[in-house]
Design goal:
mainly alpha, 3 domains, 3-stranded antiparallel sheet, globular
């Protein structure tokens, strides 16, 4: 940690303890090596969940959609860009990693160090803003000077690598105000972070006196750095209202509660002056937000809400995105189960007592159909009688139980979290394309209004291929002797269900979107 954070860098014992406490519920449910430690893939997943839960931040290189097949590289090429590749490689490619694995303390040390490095990385951007505004870094400035720095900093921060756009916005206040949604609130948000700093300095005058600014309205470069660090940590919670607004609009177009909106309605809303819904088909497909498995192309609500196109901040090493509404659900499951796998009846009882979001103002008890119950039995049958909590099939099952909250888990490597700038110039659909799709909205609405949910082919995207973040073989072997009768009973149930029409085998039938998982298709990612 000392080498990674540089001279004077440190993480307090109190913060390390807090990180451990945050990691523990997930850590308990991750499969372990024979010595009770995590292997690298599980550590990668644990780090991703931590940053997502705490700050709605997605660290580049930790995305679950990214394949990790190179044992030497660990998929770390983009982790924090080129900021700390030596640190990442030294930890994840070390003999310790390959032979011993990681315990909870190791995980906390790594996550805390990465956390500190992420927020310290903004130091370079802040220096750039100081230079552009010709403000001396060695002299304190007034509150007005700090406000100028922070406004310019936020433009740089949110615009990323778009140098031309940054200069246009900074040179035209009217354009800046009209281009950024709620710019005045963003300015107020930054001012609020300055007030927080003022309060902290007044509460601890001795610490501030060391810098010569106790009870003053003068601010050093270190003060400005502290403010932008606070902005990074709290920005997602400030911006969450925008995510909620998008959710309200999209769920309003989903009367069947499938978690999907026809592309025609999506574009129709975009044409009606809704600035958010204009991504092109090809970009939606790349993001994993487009369901093309049925006769009607549809936008998957949770995948779209959490996609990179809606991440308000996209830097070279992380993105600040909308909160993952599925994470609290999965966290409740993890806390209740407390181990890597669970029996289907445990999960059915647990999830069946939860509530599901029908609208942002209304929740109702979860409805688990006989078909979904049978699917859970099939997942267990393919995994030694137990359901791996962090396997792709269980995540897929959660999506269909909570279609508006849990994203559909695409197979690894088939989608990518890339920003509009990274995707290229055709990330926005043309007016002609949007109008062509929107013209079909009325006919589509009239057709689906009279069709029951189960007849809409809404589960046509179901895939039977399992993907595991770690080796469950030892766990399954322990369970196999005690669960053989359970597995047999599960397959008998599935056979009866298929005969009864609950689980179909004819893919052309509207109600037969279910494929039984195959053990042969299970693999590590």
């Amino acid at each position: 940690m000392g080498e990674a954070l540089g001279c004077g860098g440190q993480v307090s014992d109190e913060h390390l303890k807090a990180v451990e406490e945050a990691l523990l519920p997930i850590y308990r449910t991750l499969p372990k090596l024979s010595n009770g430690r995590l292997e690298r893939r599980s550590l990668r997943y644990l780090a991703h969940r931590y940053f997502n839960q705490q700050f709605a931040i997605v660290v580049r290189g930790f995305e679950p959609s990214r394949p990790v097949t190179d044992e030497a590289g660990w998929g770390s090429a983009e982790i924090l860009s080129q900021l700390i590749p030596g640190y990442v490689e030294s930890v994840l490619g070390s003999k310790h990693a390959t032979e011993k694995g990681f315990d909870l303390g190791d995980a906390a040390y790594m996550v805390a160090t990465l956390e500190q490095l992420i927020f310290d990385a903004e130091n370079h951007l802040l220096e750039k803003v100081y230079q552009e505004q010709k403000k001396p870094m060695h002299r304190a400035m007034s509150d007005h000077g700090l406000q100028q720095v922070l406004e310019a900093y936020m433009v740089h921060w949110m615009m990323g690598d778009d140098a031309e756009g940054i200069q246009l916005l900074l040179g035209n206040q009217s354009l800046l105000t009209s281009s950024f949604p709620h710019w005045s609130q963003l300015v107020d948000f930054a001012a609020g972070r300055v007030k927080t700093l003022d309060y902290e300095r007044q509460q601890s005058p001795a610490a501030a006196a060391d810098r010569g600014h106790a009870f003053s309205r003068r601010y050093s470069f270190q003060d400005a750095h502290a403010v932008v660090g606070g902005i990074t940590k709290s920005f997602a919670s400030f911006w969450e209202s925008e995510c909620v607004d998008m959710n309200v609009l999209l769920t309003g177009m989903d009367p069947k509660h499938t978690g999907r909106v026809p592309l025609s309605k999506f574009y129709g809303t975009g044409l009606d002056s809704e600035w958010r819904f204009g991504e092109s088909e090809s970009y939606l497909r790349q993001l994993g937000a487009l369901d093309e498995s049925s006769s009607t192309k549809q936008v998957i609500i949770p995948n779209y809400i959490q996609s990179a196109s809606n991440c308000i901040v996209t830097t070279s090493h992380y993105m600040v995105c909308c909160a993952n509404d599925c994470d609290p659900i999965l966290a409740d499951v993890e806390a209740a189960i407390g181990k890597p796998t669970a029996q289907p009846e445990q999960l059915l009882s647990l999830v069946g007592n939860m509530t599901s979001l029908t609208s942002l103002e209304d929740e109702s008890p979860v409805q688990i159909s006989a078909a979904l119950a049978a699917q859970l039995e099939a997942i267990a049958g393919a995994n030694g009688g137990q359901v791996p909590l962090h396997g792709r099939l269980f995540q897929q099952w959660l999506h269909y139980v909570f279609p508006r909250q849990c994203p559909f888990p695409h197979k690894t490597g088939t989608v990518a979290s890339i920003s509009p700038l990274q995707f290229g110039g055709n990330y926005i659909a043309s007016m002609a394309e949007m109008q062509a799709h929107a013209s079909m909205a009325d006919n589509s609405s009239n057709l689906t209004a009279t069709i029951d949910k189960e007849d809409t082919q809404w589960m046509s995207q179901w895939s039977e291929e399992e993907e595991l973040i770690a080796d469950y073989q030892d766990i399954n072997q322990k369970n196999s002797s005690s669960s053989s009768s359970f597995v047999t009973a599960g397959f008998v149930l599935l056979a009866l269900a298929a005969v009864a029409g609950i689980v179909g085998v004819n893919r052309k039938s509207p109600k037969s979107e279910f494929l039984l998982p195959s053990c042969g298709k299970s693999h590590l990612v």
